[in-house]
């Protein structure tokens, strides 16, 4: 178990999809704020490098959120390492974009199994630990969870579903002192869907902006829950 300098039990966070982008930025900010952090990813080299870049006892583990048994093992290992769990950041996601007529069954399953079922498995694994001392669940959704677009059949469906799951979690868990917030960004400068961030992305939301928002939400009074946060670039390019 990890303690802070005063002898009190340190807080900890479990972040999925954390080898880069939003997940890594959130994990790094939480570590700086004093949280013990576990980062997960399907890529061993990337997640271990991400944990080393954070230092401060951060753990980088390989975990596919499509595997509920693997998630339970890693959440249990996190609780063993840090003495409990306070923050769950559900971030792992993929995107395949094509007209429904051209979208393959495998692509549909990959998106739904990762973005929606994976979120359910992640939360399911963590609920007992969160109930033990209260906590906060963040689900990383998208403006695509409210705004459908052509070619977004699988991705829209996954994020619409994630929003619904998040709203139900709020109702199911609020009496256990567990908060749930959906964070719904627009364009973010990340590696999502094969994109490589560059200077041309300066107008977009940056991963560090979502990390700052997460820290700000954690500082809200216990009596107050911002249950859904839509985040947009303040000045996108004119079309």
Verbal overview:
The protein has 239 residues and is α/β, with parallel strands linked by helices. The protein has one domain: NAD(P)-binding Rossmann-like Domain (Rossmann fold, 3-Layer(aba) Sandwich), CATH 3.40.50.720. Helix content is 42%, strand content 15%. It is built from six helices and seven strands; from the N terminus they run E-H-E-H-E-H-E-H-E-H-E-H-E. Helix 1 crosses helix 6 (207-218), helix 3 (68-82) packs parallel to helix 4 (105-133) and helix 4 (105-133) runs parallel beside helix 5 (153-173). Keywords: Oxidoreductase. This is Short-chain dehydrogenase.
State the helical fraction. Answer: 40-55%
- Count of structural domains: 1
H/I helix tally = 6
At CATH's second level, what is the architecture?
3-Layer(aba) Sandwich
- Determine the structural class based on helices, strands and strand pairing: alpha/beta
Distance between the termini: 53 Å
Keywords: Oxidoreductase
Protein name: Short-chain dehydrogenase
InterPro entries: KR_dom, NAD(P)-bd_dom_sf, SDR_fam
Pfam families: adh_short
Which features characterize this protein?
alpha/beta, 6 helices, 239 residues, 7 strands, 7-stranded parallel beta sheet, Rossmann fold, globular
């Amino acid at each position: 178990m990890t303690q802070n300098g005063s002898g009190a039990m340190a807080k900890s966070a479990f972040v999925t999809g954390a080898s880069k982008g939003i997940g890594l930025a959130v994990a790094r900010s939480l570590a700086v704020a004093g949280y013990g952090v576990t980062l997960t990813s399907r890529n061993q080299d990337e997640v271990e490098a991400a944990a080393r870049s954070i230092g401060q006892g951060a753990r980088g583990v390989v975990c596919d959120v499509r595997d509920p048994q693997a998630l339970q093992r890693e959440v249990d290992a996190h609780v063993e390492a840090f003495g409990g769990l306070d923050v769950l950041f559900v971030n792992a996601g993929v995107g395949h974009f094509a007209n429904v007529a051209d979208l393959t069954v495998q692509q549909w399953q990959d998106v739904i199994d990762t973005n929606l079922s994976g979120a359910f498995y992640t939360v399911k694994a963590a609920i007992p630990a969160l109930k033990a001392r209260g906590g906060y669940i963040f689900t990383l959704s998208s403006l695509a969870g409210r705004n459908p677009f052509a070619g977004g059949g699988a991705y829209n469906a996954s994020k619409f579903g994630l929003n619904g799951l998040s709203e139900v979690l709020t109702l199911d868990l609020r009496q256990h002192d567990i908060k749930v917030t959906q964070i719904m960004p627009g364009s973010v400068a990340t590696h999502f869907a094969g994109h490589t961030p560059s200077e041309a992305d300066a107008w977009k939301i940056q991963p560090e902006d979502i990390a700052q928002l997460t820290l700000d939400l954690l500082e809200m009074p216990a009596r107050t829950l911002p249950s859904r946060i839509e985040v947009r670039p303040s000045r996108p390019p004119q079309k």
